[in-house]
Amino acid sequence: MVQGLVVAAVHAGSIAEEMEIECGDQILSIDGQEIEDIIDFQYLTAEDEFTLLLEKAGGELWELEIERSYGEELGLEVQAVSPHGLKLCRNNCIFCFVAQMPQGMRASLYDKDDDYRLSLTQGSFITLSNLDEDEFERILKFHLSPLYISVHAWDAEARVRLMKNPRAGDLSSQLKRLAEAGIQIHSQIVLVPGYNDGGVLEQTVHELGNLHPSVQSIAVVPVGLTKHRANLPDLRPFTPEEAWGILAKGEVWQKEYRRKTGRSLVYFSDEFYASAGRDYPSIEIYDDFAQLENGVGMASKFRQEFDHALQSLPPAIPQRKVHLITGVSAAPFFEDLLKKLKPIEGLTIERHTIINSFFGPTVTVAGLLTAQDIAGHIGNIKGEIFLIPRVMLKADEEVFLDDRSVEWLAEELQGIPLVVENQGRAFLEAVTGLDLEGEDCE
């Protein structure tokens, strides 16, 4: 029996809606070719004319002749990248965050995938060590670009030691094949003290830099360690002094790459600056913010947007009190921003810095806070407004990591929730309750 891609959404006013395609319909083939996954779907629907075969919820088969103008979207989304499920990860990385998670969280967080199709469509990082040759050839054939790749270490021995997979040592040849094919690569290095820092890091950055312009960005992020590490290798976080030293080396690399390529090329996550107690760089360092979702440059971009929107703020607003929730690492950053709001009459902001009890105090980023920890820290706010950064919630639902909803937290706090996008102007509008003129800076 042929399995197809299931339609998850149909856009209003689209060709798909006009053709009466509905959520739950299965797309079986296009121009007579069975659909293996979302890559086939995107490739085969790129034409302006094609025949789509789908199965309705009641089992009826529909054959639809699609014609569209150049650039016009079909207007539908599918539930998964493949009817056969995701490509699972066979690595056993010593720093794997999934292995450090307690029970009771969102079910999807325990999925340990390493799927190149998610890398292309959602920007998820893959290691390449779980690809077979047919899949690799498929990447080259369809020129699937850009890809987001977890590198960690160029040195084969160091990478195998980190990932506990003998195939992890094939990375250098794989990256060179991708570069020769013109595939754009956004790479990340999860840095672990004593494993891939020091000389290993220098070699990794150097070799990745040699693959520019195929390699468009190199993000360096510190290892994330929770308190749930029973039977896992004994790892530690970087000290502030070590983080400072890494950033100092990084600035040298950035200057050299800007001279050679016109880009900083290597970027460090906001966590490194917070750990070192250093101010965040100017936005120019981050070029096109290629790894914003990886926590690289978020603070600098947010501050720039905040300062830009602040110019539109009146000297006084109607009486308003809000509660601001943040993690430990971002607390000094928001303290500086809130100082700029002190002159605004009528505005009261109470900042709550939440220590992460769920994962442990070494996890300090706001995006890994849970509703339970927030509720336990704040208590009853008696009907007042509290701000929830969007980064704390699942992308398509208002659910925290611990599977508690925004509604649950509102009941616990007896407050009014306001979910805020991670943008400076959106934050300022949420705090003040005003619609401010202008747009966020890019």
TrEMBL record:
Pfam families associated with the record: DUF512, PDZ_6, Radical_SAM_2
Domain of life the protein comes from: Bacteria
Residue span(s) of domain PDZ: 1-38
Name of the protein described by the UniProt record: Putative radical SAM enzyme, TIGR03279 family
Organism: Desulfitobacterium chlororespirans DSM 11544
